[in-house]
């Protein structure tokens, strides 16, 4: 009897555990594939992800319709079918870039009701013919974007998505925004109240904060924490929460790249040390894979050092200063996302991973709950065959 009581207690514990972890929405593990990379879509290890984002499409400057470059079109139109070979349940999103060259077109599109209509209709049409499950709009808090108009776009977009679902009988397309952080642009802030009711979630572009082409001193480009005079992700997330957004709308962006700086004086190599500009590449950006082989090239003894204050890896040799994320910092950031009840993470971008090492780092952390789940099923199965006496 005592043994049965123990089993029941254990079962109750496990079932409450399994239940509570399943009552949240799915833990999002999203990955960006960028068509400018050399990674063939068929090589994507889609089993490691719940969502894959295909980037990037643009907006035509005269029709305000979605434009996909003809050289990329064959990859976009077959994207969903290809990634589903290895993971039939993976969801796909088409990313629309409203940054850099795309910004002027986007900011004029959102000002006019007829332009917005043309954009929204074309976005839904494109999703449906290519078989994507949703849309990801990549847009910064730029001063050239009128945030009232952006809010109007989101409201109209959600209405159109709901109506499309009603007409087609298919489930609603996902609507996601990729947001970036520019504290210098305050008080320009995203329209949080409208975001709450219209978007499924937000990909936080939690990187590229401090880059060598823009600053003449070294800095962490993707710091999770840091002193208040440094931009960091934790501070940004707290700003969203103070603004009234719930943590469950936030998905943490993880960079698969870092930045190299050239130090003015090799002996002065702390964070904030003077820099004469980018190192190694023209803008200093380097994929994880390349950083690893760069470090290896220095031979025995060369190693990057983990800095837990900022949650990043640092490699300094001579006048080269590189900060980046590796398995250790990626794991720390995913744990942070879990502890703070975010909805998951999204990695940028897949071709910079090294044999899926970083992508697997996220998988290990969820294994425990799957293990508990299997244990639960086994025990449930086993106890069905024993008679349990309650006394
Ligand atoms: C945008 O649309 C116009 C009108 O259909 C077309 O002439 C132009 O080539 C398009 N631009 C691009 C970049 O495709
Ligand atoms: C399409 O992509 C090719 C190759 O990336 C590029 O050379 C070309 O300029 C692009 N065309 C347009 C209209 O953006
Ligand atoms: C933003 O757009 C709204 C509505 O079109 C307008 O009332 C407001 O003045 C605009 N704000 C700025 C800063 O231009
Ligand atoms: C991280 O780097 C900063 C600045 O260089 C330094 O002050 C701090 O002690 C480092 N933290 C760790 C844990 O190494
Ligand atoms: C996350 O959610 C759990 C369960 O609802 C709660 O106990 C915990 O305080 C939350 N964590 C944060 C940082 O809000």
Automatic annotation (TrEMBL):
<keyword id="KW-0732">Signal</keyword>
<dbReference type="InterPro" id="IPR001223">
    <property type="entry name" value="Glyco_hydro18_cat"/>
</dbReference>
<dbReference type="InterPro" id="IPR011583">
    <property type="entry name" value="Chitinase_II/V-like_cat"/>
</dbReference>
<dbReference type="GO" id="GO:0005975">
    <property type="term" value="P:carbohydrate metabolic process"/>
</dbReference>
<dbReference type="InterPro" id="IPR017853">
    <property type="entry name" value="GH"/>
</dbReference>
<dbReference type="Pfam" id="PF00704">
    <property type="entry name" value="Glyco_hydro_18"/>
</dbReference>
<feature type="signal peptide">
    <location>
        <begin position="1"/>
        <end position="20"/>
    </location>
</feature>
<feature type="domain" description="GH18">
    <location>
        <begin position="27"/>
        <end position="369"/>
    </location>
</feature>
<dbReference type="GO" id="GO:0004568">
    <property type="term" value="F:chitinase activity"/>
</dbReference>
<dbReference type="InterPro" id="IPR029070">
    <property type="entry name" value="Chitinase_insertion_sf"/>
</dbReference>
<dbReference type="InterPro" id="IPR050314">
    <property type="entry name" value="Glycosyl_Hydrlase_18"/>
</dbReference>
<dbReference type="GO" id="GO:0006032">
    <property type="term" value="P:chitin catabolic process"/>
</dbReference>
<protein>
    <recommendedName>
        <fullName>GH18 domain-containing protein</fullName>
    </recommendedName>
</protein>
<dbReference type="GO" id="GO:0008061">
    <property type="term" value="F:chitin binding"/>
</dbReference>
<dbReference type="GO" id="GO:0005576">
    <property type="term" value="C:extracellular region"/>
</dbReference>
